[in-house]
Amino acid sequence: MKNVTFSADERLIEAARRKAHTVNRTLNDEFRSWLEEYVRRDEQASRAAMFLDHVLQYASTGGHRYSRDEMNGR
Q1: Of the residues 7, 13, 19, 55, which has the fewest C-beta atoms closer than 10 A?
Q2: Is 70 among the domain residues?
Q3: Residue 40 maps to a domain
Q4: DSSP 3-state assignment of 61?
Q5: CB-CB contact of 30 with 20 (8 Å)
Q6: What is the largest CA-CA distance in the chain?
Q7: What residues make up the domain containing 6?
Protein backbone atom coordinates (compact mmCIF):
# COMPACT_ATOMS: atom_id res chain seq x y z
CA MET A 1 0.00 0.00 0.00
CA LYS A 2 1.32 3.45 -0.90
CA ASN A 3 1.48 6.27 1.63
CA VAL A 4 -0.03 9.60 0.61
CA THR A 5 0.25 12.90 2.46
CA PHE A 6 -2.54 15.48 2.43
CA SER A 7 -2.94 18.74 4.25
CA ALA A 8 -6.19 19.87 5.85
CA ASP A 9 -7.40 22.05 8.67
CA GLU A 10 -6.34 20.53 12.01
CA ARG A 11 -9.83 20.91 13.50
CA LEU A 12 -11.34 19.15 10.50
CA ILE A 13 -8.92 16.25 10.84
CA GLU A 14 -9.66 15.87 14.56
CA ALA A 15 -13.41 16.00 13.93
CA ALA A 16 -13.04 13.35 11.22
CA ARG A 17 -11.01 11.14 13.57
CA ARG A 18 -13.69 11.42 16.26
CA LYS A 19 -16.42 10.59 13.76
CA ALA A 20 -14.49 7.56 12.47
CA HIS A 21 -13.91 6.43 16.06
CA THR A 22 -17.68 6.40 16.72
CA VAL A 23 -18.01 3.61 14.14
CA ASN A 24 -14.86 1.80 15.34
CA ARG A 25 -12.79 2.77 12.32
CA THR A 26 -9.67 4.81 11.74
CA LEU A 27 -9.43 7.91 9.62
CA ASN A 28 -7.29 5.88 7.19
CA ASP A 29 -10.04 3.24 6.94
CA GLU A 30 -12.59 5.94 6.18
CA PHE A 31 -10.33 7.57 3.59
CA ARG A 32 -9.72 4.26 1.81
CA SER A 33 -13.48 3.62 1.68
CA TRP A 34 -14.09 7.11 0.33
CA LEU A 35 -11.36 6.72 -2.30
CA GLU A 36 -12.80 3.40 -3.52
CA GLU A 37 -16.28 4.92 -3.77
CA TYR A 38 -14.91 8.01 -5.54
CA VAL A 39 -13.33 5.85 -8.25
CA ARG A 40 -16.30 3.47 -8.45
CA ARG A 41 -18.74 6.33 -9.16
CA ASP A 42 -16.79 7.34 -12.27
CA GLU A 43 -16.60 3.73 -13.43
CA GLN A 44 -20.34 3.25 -12.89
CA ALA A 45 -21.12 6.45 -14.78
CA SER A 46 -18.94 5.31 -17.69
CA ARG A 47 -20.59 1.88 -17.78
CA ALA A 48 -24.05 3.45 -17.65
CA ALA A 49 -23.21 5.80 -20.53
CA MET A 50 -21.85 2.90 -22.61
CA PHE A 51 -24.98 0.87 -21.87
CA LEU A 52 -27.25 3.75 -22.93
CA ASP A 53 -25.27 4.23 -26.13
CA HIS A 54 -25.66 0.53 -26.88
CA VAL A 55 -29.39 0.47 -26.12
CA LEU A 56 -30.09 3.62 -28.11
CA GLN A 57 -28.70 1.92 -31.21
CA TYR A 58 -31.73 -0.37 -31.11
CA ALA A 59 -34.34 2.06 -29.81
CA SER A 60 -36.20 3.73 -32.63
CA THR A 61 -39.74 4.84 -33.32
CA GLY A 62 -39.16 4.63 -37.05
CA GLY A 63 -39.81 8.34 -37.26
CA HIS A 64 -43.27 8.07 -35.70
CA ARG A 65 -44.00 10.79 -33.15
CA TYR A 66 -46.21 9.42 -30.40
CA SER A 67 -48.93 11.56 -28.86
CA ARG A 68 -49.13 12.03 -25.13
CA ASP A 69 -52.07 9.59 -24.96
CA GLU A 70 -50.15 6.97 -26.95
CA MET A 71 -47.12 7.27 -24.69
CA ASN A 72 -49.26 6.98 -21.57
CA GLY A 73 -51.49 4.19 -22.91
CA ARG A 74 -51.30 0.87 -21.17
Answers
A1: 7
A2: no
A3: yes
A4: coil
A5: yes
A6: 62
A7: 1-55
3-class DSSP string for the chain: CCCCCCCCCHHHHHHHHHHHHHCCCCHHHHHHHHHHHHHHHHHHHHHHHHHHHHHHCCCCCCCCCCCHHHHHCC
Tens of pLDDT, residue by residue over 17-71, are 999 999 999 999 999 999 999 988 888 888 898 998 888 888 777 778 888 998 8
Q: In total, how many domains does the chain have?
A: 1
**Which residues lie closer than 8 Å to 30 by C-beta, 6 or more apart?**
16, 19, 20
pTM score, whole prediction: 0.57
Cα distance between residue 26 and residue 1, in whole Å: 16
**48 domain residue, yes or no:** yes
In-domain check, residue 10: yes
Distinct helix (H) and strand (E) counts, the chain: 3, 0
In this prediction, residue 74 carries a pLDDT of 64
